[in-house]
Design a protein that fits this description.
Radius of gyration: 21 Å
Shape: globular
Distance between the termini: 48 Å
Order of helices and strands: EHEHEHEHEHHEHHEEHHH
Bound molecules: nicotinamide-adenine-dinucleotide
């Protein structure tokens, strides 16, 4: 297989001053991309700001012979993000790749979590991905090319105690991907999602030391690079960590049909095993497929099919 290269491509990586984003930015640049290294430079909980983290990564890229600019936009602020995209276009004429990676944590059980902590985490992960994607979307459509990667988490896909804010946001970006995939594909915009697990400051102290050594950001970045490539898949949730790569899939069971006289809560409950049985489950490429399936069941019952 030929090398994946990004010569002539322009990428924005949000939250690239540290951890996974830094690793993504370095590797995109090493493979030829011109990179906007965005980072607000705050603490894990989102407080504070400094451009020095992004600037350090830019220096690393330049020292290795690459091209990069540092940017301190807060991804939740449309004006700052618009200025970041303008800066990329002024410098290099376009944006081909957007990696929505910026993130913060404010873990607490739902009982103890303030609405402010819920909102702050939703804002950076979900709203931040919306703001950044919106800022490049029309340019990508006009150019007929775009690669966008959302960053999800097993905490959202499967759940993790104490992370209701984070989990909700991380599943939110999957919904965003599903719709933007449908809206972007005719303009060659491919939208995918990375679900990483790595040793960074975000997971500091949560992973045993021996395991942490295996969970390198670089192992996750190998997956990210595949999602940014010209030949990237579409609407894929790629999970990556410690050298393991898998895909998360969402399937729907065939379920049951209940006739109008059977359509009671008691009958739904009585059929729960059949409804949740995985036998014959399918992956749907859009929401309308579910409606169509149910109408087909009913039409068959009424002999309309
Ligand atoms: P990290 O804390 O090292 O990096 C996140 C970066 O985002 C920081 O440099 C931070 O300054 C930046 N940032 C935060 N808010 C910002 C804002 N409003 N605007 C711009 N930049 C902002 O953490 P990481 O582990 O590298 O996480 C990267 C992404 O991967 C996050 O979206 C995170 O939720 C996700 N993730 C990480 C893991 C893991 O195991 N590390 C697991 C699942 C998901």
């Amino acid at each position: 297989m030929s090398d994946i290269r990004f010569d002539g491509r322009v990428a924005i990586v949000t939250g690239a001053g540290a951890g996974l984003g830094r690793s993504h930015a370095l590797e995109l640049a090493r493979r030829g991309a011109k990179v906007v290294v965005n980072d607000l430079g705050g603490a894990v909980d989102g407080t504070g700001s400094s451009l020095s983290a992004a600037e350090t990564v830019v220096e690393e890229i330049k020292a290795a012979g690459g091209e990069a600019i540092a940017n301190g936009a807060n991804v939740t602020k449309p004006d700052e993000v618009a200025a970041m995209v303008d800066a990329a276009r002024d410098a290099w004429g376009k944006v081909d790749i957007l990696v929505n990676n910026a993130g913060i944590l404010r873990d607490k059980s739902f009982t103890k979590m303030s609405l402010e902590d819920f909102r702050a985490v939703m804002e950076v992960h979900l709203w931040g991905a919306v703001v950044c994607t919106k800022a490049v979307w029309d340019h990508m459509k006009e150019a007929g090319y775009g690669r966008i990667v959302m960053t999800s988490s097993s905490s959202g896909i499967y759940g993790n105690f104490g992370q209701s804010n984070y989990g909700a946001a991380k599943m939110g970006v999957v919904g965003l991907m599903n719709v933007l995939h449908l809206e972007g594909r005719k303009n060659n915009i491919k939208v995918n999602t990375l679900s990483p697990t790595a040793h960074t400051r975000m997971t500091e102290g949560l992973i045993p030391e021996e395991a942490a050594k295996l969970m390198t950001p670089e192992s996750v970045t190998a997956g990210l690079i595949a999602l940014c490539a010209e030949t990237a898949p579409e609407r894929t949730i790629l999970c990556a960590g410690a050298g393991g790569y898998a895909a998360t899939k969402i399937y729907e069971t065939p379920g049951v049909y209940l006739s109008p006289e059977e359509q009671t809560a008691e009958n739904v409950m009585a059929n729960m095993d059949k409804i949740t049985s995985e036998h014959g489950q399918e992956e749907f490429e859009e929401g309308a497929r579910q409606t169509f399936k149910f109408i087909q069941y009913a039409a068959k019952h009424f002999d309309l099919a």
